[in-house]
Design a protein that fits this description.
Layout lengths: L12 H24 L8 E13 L4 E8 L2 E10 L9 E7 L7 E4 H4 L10 E2 L3 E4 L2 E4 L3 E3 L2 E8 L5 E13 L8 E10 L6 E8 L1 E12 L11 E5 L2 E6 L2 H4 L10 E2 L3 E7 L2 E7 L5 E3 L2 E7 L1 E3 L3 E3 L3 E11 L10 H4 L12
Antiparallel strand pairs: 1-11, 2-10, 3-8, 3-9, 3-11, 4-5, 4-10, 6-7, 7-8, 12-24, 13-21, 14-19, 14-20, 14-24, 15-16, 15-21, 17-18, 18-19, 22-23
C-alpha cells in the first residue's frame, strides 16, 4: 500500500465508520459463537493444576511445571512471577505432547504470550491476553496420552523468582482420536536478508492460526510496505499488500489498538509490536506451508529494507515429523543490527 509517510493518507470518515462497524460485527459473531456453545453438556470432566512457589532454575537446567494425563484438552494456561513484567529472557517454555521426544511448543516464555523480548505490554485478544503481569492463553490444546509443561533456562544466569501458574484442562475419551496438536515457533532475522522474514516453514497437514511480530526500524518514513506471502502446498498467495493491512489497519498505523483478532500495541522509538489471529479464516495446508513477510520501506517507491524482525507463529498440525527449533540465547538477545538509512 503506497504512501508518502507514516500518516500521509487518511481514510474518509465514511470509510472509517464502515470499517469499524464491519470489524465490530465480526467480533460480535465470534463472541456469540463461543457463548452459544456453553450450554452443551459433554462427558468431559474439568481439572486444574495450580502452583504458587519459589522457582529456582540454574543456567542449563529445567523444571517440570505439570504432567497431565490424557486423553484431554488444555483449555487455559496462565503464568506470572514477581519480576513486574520483566520475565528473565533465558526462560524457555517447552510443551511435549503425548510421548514425543521433541516439544511442539518451544519458545521463550514471555514471547509465547506476546511480551517479545521480555517487555510486557497489556493487550486483550480472543486467544491471548496480558493484564497487569498476568499472562494468559486460551488456545485449545488437545492431547491423547499426556501433556508435559516444562520451563527451561538456557540463559547465562540462575533464575530464582516467586512464580504462580495454572493449567485448566478437560479430560474426555473423545480426545483419544484427535490428532491435531498446537505448535509454536520463534524466529528472528537480525537483520532481514533480501528484505524478507520467514515466520514459519513446515511440512505436513495443519492449520496456521496466527502470530506476534516485533519490528525495529530506524527508518523515519513508512517502514511497513511489505506484503505477507503464503506458500500453501507449493502455491504462492499474496495475502495482504502491506504490513498494516495484515495486522488490522490501513494507510499505515496512526495509533495503537488491541482487538480480538488483531492489534498494533507498540509504537516506541522505532519499536513496533503487532499481532494477527486467523480464527475465522485459518490458513489450511495439506502438504506444506511457508509464511513470509516482506521487509520494505517507501521512498519514491518500494525499497527492500534490512530491519530487525522477531516473530512467534502458532499452528495446529497432525503427526509432526520435524522438531520445533529455537535460536540460541545469545542470538535471541543480541543487540539489534538493523540498518541505518541515509534517506529521511
Amino acid at each position: 500500500m503506497r504512501i508518502t509517510g507514516v500518516a500521509a493518507l487518511r481514510p474518509t470518515f465514511s470509510l472509517t465508520i464502515t470499517a469499524v462497524l464491519f470489524f465490530c460485527n465480526l467480533s460480535s459473531v465470534a463472541f456469540a459463537v463461543g457463548i452459544q456453545e456453553l450450554y452443551r453438556i459433554t462427558n468431559g470432566v474439568s481439572g486444574s493444576h495450580v502452583e504458587y512457589r519459589q522457582l529456582t532454575i540454574p543456567s542449563g537446567g529445567e523444571v517440570l511445571l505439570a504432567d497431565i494425563q490424557g486423553p484431554g484438552k488444555i483449555t487455559y494456561f496462565y503464568v506470572t512471577d514477581n519480576s513486574q513484567g520483566r520475565f528473565y529472557p533465558g526462560l524457555v517454555l517447552k510443551v511435549f505432547w503425548d510421548n514425543e521426544k521433541d516439544p511442539g511448543i518451544h519458545v521463550p516464555l514471555s514471547d509465547f504470550f506476546g511480551a517479545i523480548g521480555s517487555r510486557t505490554i497489556d493487550y486483550q485478544s480472543a486467544p491471548m491476553q496480558i493484564n497487569h503481569y498476568c499472562y494468559m492463553c486460551y488456545l485449545p490444546m488437545p492431547f491423547s496420552k499426556r501433556a508435559r509443561f516444562l520451563l527451561a533456562n538456557d540463559g547465562d544466569e540462575k533464575y530464582s523468582r516467586s512464580v504462580a501458574y495454572g493449567i485448566d484442562y478437560e479430560k474426555n475419551q473423545t480426545f483419544a482420536a484427535v490428532k491435531s496438536r498446537l505448535h509454536c515457533c520463534w524466529r528472528r532475522s537480525n537483520p532481514t536478508q533480501n528484505g524478507l522474514h520467514t515466520l514459519l516453514q513446515v511440512r505436513g497437514k495443519g492449520n496456521y492460526i496466527g502470530n506476534f511480530l516485533q519490528i525495529f526500524s530506524s527508518y523515519k518514513g513508512w517502514w511497513g510496505e511489505g506484503d505477507t506471502n503464503l506458500h500453501i502446498d507449493g502455491k504462492k498467495i499474496i495475502h495482504t499488500p502491506g504490513t498494516e493491512d495484515e495486522y488490522g489497519s490501513c494507510w499505515s498505523f496512526e495509533h495503537t489498538f488491541s482487538y480480538m483478532y488483531c492489534g498494533y500495541i507498540q509504537n516506541d522509538k522505532g519499536n513496533n509490536r503487532m499481532y494477527r489471529w486467523y480464527l475465522a479464516n485459518p490458513v489450511r495446508f495439506r502438504e506444506s506451508l511457508k509464511v513470509e513477510i516482506q521487509n520494505q520501506r517507501y521512498k519514491d517507491g518500494q525499497i527492500p529494507s534490512a530491519d530487525d524482525y522477531i516473530s512467534v507463529a502458532y499452528w495446529y498440525q497432525e503427526n509432526r515429523t520435524h522438531p520445533v527449533t529455537l535460536q540460541f540465547y545469545r542470538e535471541r538477545t543480541a543487540l539489534s543490527r538493523a540498518a541505518e538509512y541515509a534517506e529521511k
